[in-house]
Every structure is written in structure tokens, then in C-alpha cells.
Amino acid sequence: MRREDKIAAEMREKLKEKIIAIEVPRERRIFAYIKTEALKESIKFLKDMGFKHLSTITGVDMEDGIELIYHLALDGSIELSLRLKVQKDDPRVPTITDIIPGAVLYEREVHDMFGVNFEGHPDLSPLILPEKWPRNIYPLRKKYALERLRNIIFKEEDIE
Amino acid sequence: MSYGSTIKVPFGPQHPALKEPEHFLFKIDGDIIVNVKPRIGYNHRGIEKAFERRTYIQNIYLAERICGICSDAHTTCYVQAIEDLLGVEAPPRARYIRVIVAELERIHSHSLWLGIAAHEIGFDTLFMHLWRDREAVMDILELISGNRVHYAMNTIGGVRRDIVSETIPKIIGSLDFLEKRTKYYMKVLRSEPTVLKRTVDIGVLKPEDAVELCAVGPTLRASGVKNDVRGDDPYAAYDEIPFNIVTDDGCDVFSRILVRCGEILESINMIRYALDHMPSGMLRVRVPMAVKPGEAVSRVEAPRGELIHYVKSNGSTKPERYKVRSPTLANIPALCRMLIGQHVADIPIILAGIDPCFACMDRLVFVDVKTNKKKALDFESFRKIVRRRHELL
Amino acid sequence: MNLLKWARIKSPWILHFNTGGCNGCDIELLAAFTPRFDVERFGILLQGSPRHADILAVTGPVTLQVRKRLIRIYEQMPEPKYVLAVGSCACSGAPFKDCYNVIGGVDKVLPVDVYVPGCPPKPEAIIDGIVKLIQKIEEEKIDEKGR
């Protein structure tokens, strides 16, 4: 059995019904879809298994919610993308910085771009958005088309 | 000169009254850094949103311009992600060419960085020598691709240009030259007392901290951790080309210099091997315009470290979502950790040590913990203070 | 010819400012000051402070957050001052023109004297742009202020 399949099997055994789906599309790539409440438990379990490196956290604005994808690496080799979904109005998940301190800036970035609240994060102040950026306008949300964002920003500029 | 309540430092171009966000907020106690808070909005252009607006082919040229120093790393990472979605593989010859161009870029990037590091230490002559010698690799890149920066070699399904046999003797000649020069610079750097004083035991990052904070690239490897995407998660032709992953156990800025020098030498050998063993055949395979729904994760070892792209496709000619995480961002938590307890005068060389995109490092703010006074500086003014201070010591 | 103007033409001092570009133009601009191209032999120096600069060489597509700072730097330069837009981004915003955080082109914020297109322009092209700017300065009429 490939290492990746073994990992998938161990995840199913440990997390049981909290796993919605797991796929191994090719070598060194695993995509797992879990229930939102299983986030911290999954991260802890995966870290103990050796997935100590968090490459980044991706946010995706889908019609039925905001997807958060945690990209973890085992020995820098196998990349596991752990996905969960949060509701769009008032999106929130617990922080994982207590388990993986390296997540600190990735959570800030997703907060900037999507408005997701990472509960327990030491400091969710803006990371990459400029100082004058209007609050509550999350640029990577689909409802903001590029033109609309440009109109918002350049109008704000005139206000100064 | 003290950084206590009587701060006498020249201001940069910014007017003191202009309230602007700092990129690094340093809490200092006298001369020692107590805490660091990053806020890196300088360069934010909004590229990820722009990706959703362009076709997969147009996005190659956007990805390339995320960074001018590691543009090939970004295009390689990008085309691999799309090839993954499409279920195609670039032909063997294309994969070898990708390695050659990527390693040439690594040599150019590390040489550039060595010059900048020399400049930070005050060795402007060394900076000039390094950048002059670096022209050898810029010439090869121009010979192969037609441009010195932004080579546009990669496309979805392969590469756009061949490395023709007539160019190979010139390439080998330049590599031989670069190898000799790099070995010379390593000797100089290892034996110069000023270099050693400014970099040994400075900016120490313990291996367990590097791993815990998810550091990448030479910063990680200079703390003894043997991770490199080319070896751990091979792509292009890296699984067919032997090479050593360069690490050092020193965990300080000096180690980071040694690792990058070592990597230049490794890259030279890899290019020689690749040219010697280059398979013949097609340069690219045909691919469709629209990409069926799916997702992919692509990783590449850029000169600064692990570069990761994530793509989600929706069946159209444009991506649903494109995410880019550059290696510099991954190293900022580690950078903050290695700054704590260090002297303010060592800030420039420690910052430079992680090889950041220069724009990120533009603006520094200092807060004295005893008096709670805030002072902002631009990097040039700060560098002058640091130079003066090191001369006095 | 006025002595001050002669000195200014013979050795213009350049202040380089990146407004959020990819750094491609910055490294080619810097390369112009290294031995292969050696623009310094013409007396052209890279300056750290706007107060001593004659020419502001701007790279990048001008992001929102940098706009005020760019204007501030320009204001701090003594007259007469000139602006060189280096690279396609500085000329027009190039690939980032429609990005939400990009104003697009230095001339939307400052008066530009010479445009050097390219992505990035080669050091030779940048030097050529500087030379064209010097020629432009030479051709300017001398006004009452004794410029």
C-alpha cells in the first residue's frame, strides 16, 4: 500500500464520521474534507503523525460557504490539504496557533481577505491590506468584483 | 548613541506627522530588541483577485511578475499546477530545461543576495565584484530566453524555447567561471574578520524553532534541517538529477551565507549534469483552453524557499481561485523569533539574512519600552546609523 | 550656460523609489550602477535622500498605500526636479493595471519627464532614458530664476 493510502486509512480510523471525504489523486498529494468541528482534533492528530509543517492556509469563497484549506506537509514530502467549510455570515473557526505556531500569519491573511474570525488568535490586526482600507470589505469575496473594489477604494481616497 | 528617551536619529523621507503603517514594529529596551510585530502591506497589489479575471494562459505572465527575482519559480509552480489539473505531463526534454533555467535563476538570486549582504556589512567593493560576476549568469539567461529578467520559458504543457547545442559551450564556460568566483568569495567570506564578527552567532534560529514556525529554504537549512522541495517532493526532472541538499548547523546569519554559497555550487553541477544528460524530443504537449473542475497543489523550491500555489478550477477558461504563498512570508515568524534579544544594530543583517523581497523591509518603527516613545525610520537612514555604530565598536 | 545647470547636467543624482513593483526593474536599475554598465563614471550617483536628488526614478505600478509617500518624497526634492518612470508598470501599470490596489502608472500621481518602458528595461535602456532626460534638461529654456 502506498504511504499516502496508509495515511488516509489511519485518518479514517481515527476521525471516523468526522471525515466527509478523502482522495489521493496522485503520489504525495492527499485531499481531505472534514467537518468543521473536527479542525483542532485533526490538526493535532496530523501533527503527531508527522505533519509538522504548515505550508499555508487558503480561503475560497464558494456559494454555500467559505472553504478553509490547511496545507500540511509530512517531512516536506507528502502534502495534505485539509478542507472544511464555514458559513459566510459570521465565519469563525478556532485558531491553530497553539498547535502550530507557524500558522500565525496565515490566519491573519485569511482574515484580511475573507473576514474569517480565528478565535483565540493572539492578534488579528491587518497583515497585508493597506492602512486606509475600509473595514469589512474583504477583497477576495466573490461579491466584490474588481471594478467594484476599485470604485470603493478610489472613492475612499478622495474622502481624505 | 542610545535608543532610550533621548533618541537622536535622522528621519527618512516620511514626515513624522504622516501616520503610516510600519512594516516592522520593534519594541526595544535600550539597545536590545524585546519584541517584533510584522505588518507587511507595502507590496500588496491584489494579484490573487486578478488571477480570477484572466485565462489560464494569460495568468502565466501575471504569475511571472509576482516577483522579479524568482519569476521562473512562480511560472514553474503555476504551470505545474495547471498540468496537474489537466492530467498532463511536460515532455522529458522540457522538464530538463525547466531544471536548467530554475537553477540558473537560483544562481542569479543567490549572487544578488550575496551582494546585498556584503553591502549590509559595509563591503561595497565586494558587492560590486559580486554583481559584476553575476552578469555571467544574466548573459546565459539572456542567451537562452532572450531576456535577463522574466524569461517566459514555461508554458502549460512544457517550455516555449529550446536550449540549442550551439549555446552549450558558452553556458559551460560561464559556469566554470562562476564556480571559480564563488569558491573565491566563499574563501573571502570565511576568513574576513569583519564578516565573521557581523554574522557569526547573530540572528540565531534554533532548529526546533525553525520547524515550529514553519520556516523554509536556506533559512531553514542553515539551522540544520534537511528539507528541500527538490528532494522531498521532486518536480520537473529533479528526481533524475543527483544533487546534495546543503545544510549547516550554525543556525546564524553566517550559516545562511554558507548555505547559499553551497547551493550556487550545487546548482552549477546540476546544470552541467542536465546539459550532459538532456533527452531529445518535444518541448511541449498540446493542452485544452478550458480546464475541467478540480483542484491542485503545486510546490517548488524557489531560491528563497518553498513556494506553494493552490488552484481550484470550475470548468471554464479562468480559475475559480488561485492562491500563492511566497517563501518570504513563511519565514517572517522565524525572522521575528530570531530578532528577539538581538542588538538593534544587527537588524539590517538579520533581516537581510532571510533574503526577503526588498520592498517588505522598507519601513521600521521603534518603540522604547521604558519611555513608550515611537520613532519611525526608513531603511537607508537606519543603515547609516548601523554603519556608524559598527565603526565605533 | 549657467554653472548650476552645467553641474546638474554633468552629474545628476538619482533617487530610486519602488512603488510596489515586482523588483525586476529595481535590480536592473541597480545593475546599471555596477561595473558592467557603470553609470557612475558619468557622475550619476544613486542618492539616499530626496533633499540631494535631481531625478526621481520610480519603479512599480503605484499601489494605493504608497501614493502619499511618493508625493511626499517628490515634494521634498529641491527644484528643479525630474521624474523618470522606469518599467512598464511605472509607465502605465502594465499587468497590474486592473488590480484593486493599483493606481496604475506614475503619471497619475506625478508629472513624468521620461518614460522607459520594458519589463524590465535592460540597464542599457535605463541609461538611455537617463541620457534622454539629460538632453531634455539641456534643451529647456533658462528662466528668470537662473535655472
Structure description:
- The complex is a heterotrimer of chains A (160), B (393) and C (147).
- Chain A has 160 residues and is an alpha/beta fold.
- Chain A contains 4 helices and 7 strands.
- Chain A has helices at residues 3-15, 39-49, 104-114, 146-159, and strands at residues 19-26, 29-34, 53-62, 65-74, 78-86, 92-94, 117-119.
- Chain A is elongated and about 60 Å long.
- In chain B, strands 2-1-8-9 form a 4-stranded mixed sheet. Chain B has a 3-stranded antiparallel sheet with strand order 5-6-7.
- In chain B, helix 4 packs antiparallel against helix 11, helix 4 packs antiparallel against helix 13 and helix 5 runs antiparallel to helix 6.
- The N and C termini of chain B lie close together (12 Å).
- In chain B, 57% of the residues are buried.
- Chain C is an alpha/beta fold and 147 residues long.
- In chain C, strand 3, helix 3 and strand 4 (82-86) form a beta-alpha-beta unit.
- Chain C contains 5 helices and 5 strands, in the order αβαββαβαβα.
- Chain C has a single domain (3-139), classed as Rossmann fold, CATH 3.40.50.
- Chains in contact: A-B, A-C, B-C.
What labels describe this entry?
heterotrimer; B: about 400 residues; alpha+beta; Cytochrome-c3 Hydrogenase, chain B; 4-stranded mixed beta sheet; 9 strands; C: about 150 residues; alpha/beta; Rossmann fold; 5-stranded parallel beta sheet; 5 helices; about 35% helix; disordered C terminus
- Structural classification of chain C: alpha/beta
Order of helices and strands of chain C: HEHEEHEHEH
In total, the number of strands of chain C is 5
Strand content range of chain B:
5-15%
Q: Strand-and-helix sequence of chain B, N→C?
A: EEHHHHHEEHHHHHHEEEHHEEH
Strand order, largest beta sheet of chain B: 2-1-8-9
The level-1 CATH class of chain C: Alpha Beta
CATH class of the largest domain in chain B: Mainly Alpha
Roughly how many Å is the radius of gyration of chain C?
Answer: 15 Å
Widest sheet: strand ordering of chain C: 2-1-3-4-5
